[in-house]
Amino acid sequence: xxxxxxxxxxxxxxxxxxxxxxxxxxxxxxxxxxxxxxxxxxxxxxxxxxxxxxxxxxxxxxxxxxxxxxxxxxxxxxxxxxxxxxxxxxxxxxxxxxxxxxxxxxxxxxxxxxxxxxxxxxxxxxxxxxxxxxxxxxxxxxxxxxxxxxxxxxxxxxxxxxxxxxxxxxxxxxxxxxxxxxxxxxxxxxxxxxxxxxxxxxxxxxxxxxxxxxxxxxxxxxxxxxxxxxxxxxxxxxxxxxxxxxxxxxxxxxxxxxxxxxxxxxxxxxxxxxxxxxxxxxxxxxxxxxxxxxxxxxxxxxxxxxxxxxxxxxxxxxxxxxxxxxxxxxxxxxxxxx
Length: 338
What we know:
Layout lengths: L1 E7 L2 E6 L11 E9 L2 H7 L9 E2 L3 E9 L11 E3 L10 H4 L31 E3 L2 H4 L1 E2 L15 H15 L4 E6 L2 H12 L4 E5 L3 H9 L3 E3 L9 E7 L3 H9 L1 E9 L11 H7 L2 E4 L4 H14 L10 E4 L3 H4 L7 E4 L6
Parallel strand pairs: 9-10, 9-12, 10-11, 12-13, 13-14, 15-16
Antiparallel strand pairs: 1-2, 1-4, 3-5, 3-7, 3-16, 5-6, 6-8
Helix pairs in contact: 4-5, 4-9
Keywords: Metal-binding, Zinc
InterPro entries: ADH-like_N, GroES-like_sf, NAD(P)-bd_dom_sf
GO molecular function, one term: metal ion binding
């Protein structure tokens, strides 16, 4: 089989690898049918990632199950499934507590798409072995488009977690979104669907702002801190100065969720944060825990993640098209629509 390998800045190529087979009775083999790049993949492809190449890339996809071990009971060959980005057993104390991105059964940071916590391969591959298949794989609900939901492995479900629990606790909250890429746009859609009274989306890209406006958000190219302006702020730029703006814009005891991967150092306004009493969370996401709830929202018809998909390419175009700058490209192959 082939797996797409990141080899240098803005350069990927197919490399041959052995066909995976179940290594235990609890494994499954899946074939991605709609895969997309995470927002952080854009930074990696631009040469800003912390891990030197080469390594297999990709950690967001909907896949079709092709084979299962004898102990797998929740999925079967032919099923369409979402493959969460983090490797998790579902049984250790951390997994039972919902911390599936910190599973104690594997090395810390075990994941698809980067050689952290072991070599698990990437989801831009013809075939992928998924351990603990019953715990990891989530069937794609009937009626959902694999192309629209290719990001459910990470960015879409992360976006749900960034806002949904907070809007449940603070109905009608005012939401600030400072973003680059797909996460901020998904957040706009979800926030409006779940009752945010105001959503301000900040992004220098006019095409991104246009999409945010279709979700009912106000938009701006840039802002100065808005003192006591928002109950909830979402930052997904990877820029510490933008994170500082988000923090300075919160009401007392406001909440800031940072989904940016900050590869470069910077300074936060710690004294202002202390005086305002803000709550800041910066964390890799436990997607498998809340993936079913996120998919339920998608199935409800209240949101439209398909608008964020910028391009749909054939699977064979991956080496040429992935390094190009696209908001949210999805790469499909048969039987994606079967």
